[in-house]
Design a protein that fits this description.
By secondary structure, the protein is an alpha/beta fold. It is built from twelve helices and eight strands. It folds into two domains: 171 residues, NAD(P)-binding Rossmann-like Domain (Rossmann fold); 103 residues, 6-phosphogluconate dehydrogenase C-terminal fold. It binds nicotinamide-adenine-dinucleotide (NAD) and prephenic acid. This is Prephenate dehydrogenase.
Length: 291
């Protein structure tokens, strides 16, 4: 579908995209631009990219540039790519927060180079191409955040590519995106970290960890993720995440009140609401998409 695709940052997400693009023949050529030589060598060995190059070399004749670096450097990479982008090239990213990146990318790019913000709602707690998986995006929603400036042909081409990955493209405004992911992705992450830290701050840490079973494991898997990636996410989406923490505090207070007052109705009400909603999520699927 695409002739040449450049992936800047061939880590977990860039590498998984590369594997899927190469294995599913969605591009004739996939070139990786990577800051870490070992990671790039591995990406070539496992077939996540056909070759590696500098941005300047890679972008010659490229139809699509995918920014898959950490959020903190994506705009810098885009700025460095500017002199080498040709008219008609589509640029997208995979960052977990959209507002700042979409606004700055649109302001930076000249007419004729088409930016569409993107965010695959799929991931793992490991970093680097070593953890990349061809099927990572299968069955996942893949969010796109077009604006009134977005080129419709570029948007359609990206949607087709996403469908080729086995994912479901979904459009939403970047403000709505950042608000939603603050609640369903960023809040869970910091709660998982806080939960693990509650155990590790206890004088009986080792005993507690030895006793921990499925409940602790299931609610804390994501606490093993890369702290630097999450620092970028939490600080880039700071105000939305702070609002989400406030909303969470209200729910926690409700449960605490139910317990302090032996208020069985309050307690059961809160737990039942959660049970009803959680049970609408499909059990045996990788992701939560309900249709
Ligand atoms: N991990 C997840 O679960 C997940 C899910 C969806 C989206 N994202 C987003 O994807 C992006 C990448 O995350 P990841 O998990 O793949 O991280 P990662 O650390 O696995 O990969 C990032 C890669 O970028 C490379 N890199 C860093 N600076 C670079 C530069 N200047 N030029 C070229 N390469 C550079 C790193 O060497 C690394 O290989 C982040 O923006 C993150 O928010 C992550
Ligand atoms: O499954 C995981 O390991 C993730 O945390 C992936 C996850 C999420 O589901 O919240 C985390 C951040 C990304 O922006 C998208 C997806």
């Amino acid at each position: 579908m695409f002739n040449k695709i450049v992936i800047a940052g061939v880590g977990l997400i860039g590498g998984s995209l590369g594997l899927a693009l190469c294995k599913r023949n969605l591009a004739n050529e996939v070139v990786g631009v990577e800051a870490n030589k070992d990671n790039l060598d591995l990406a070539i060995r496992v077939g996540a990219v056909h070759s590696g190059a500098t941005l300047a070399e890679a972008l010659v004749g490229a139809e699509l540039l995918i920014l898959a670096t950490p959020i903190g450097v994506a705009l810098g990479v885009l700025e460095m790519a500017l002199p080498y982008l040709s008219k008609g090239t589509i640029v997208t990213d995979v960052g977990s927060v959209k507002g700042r990146l979409v606004e700055r990318a649109e302001a930076m790019l000249p007419a004729g180079i088409h930016f569409v913000g993107g965010h695959p709602m799929a991931g793992l707690e490991v970093a680097g191409v070593a953890g990349a998986r061809e099927d990572l995006f299968e069955g996942a929603s893949y969010l796109l955040t077009p604006t009134e400036r977005t080129d419709r042909v570029a948007l359609t081409r990206l949607k087709q590519l996403i469908e080729g990955l086995g994912a479901k493209p979904m459009e939403l405004a970047y403000q709505e995106h950042d608000q939603a992911v603050a609640i369903i992705s960023h809040l869970p992450h910091l709660l998982a970290a806080a939960l693990v830290n509650t155990v590790s701050a206890d004088t009986k840490e080792q005993l507690l960890l030895d006793l921990a079973a499925g409940g602790f494991r299931d609610t804390t898997r994501i606490a093993a993720s890369n702290p630097m990636m999450w620092r970028d996410i939490l600080l880039t989406n700071r105000s939305q995440v702070l609002e989400a923490i406030e909303k969470f505090r209200e729910q926690l207070n409700l449960i605490e009140q139910g317990m302090l007052r032996f208020d069985s109705e309050l307690l059961v009400g809160s737990l039942t609401r959660a049970q009803n909603v959680r049970s609408t999520l499909p059990e045996n699927r990788k992701y939560c998409l309900r249709k």
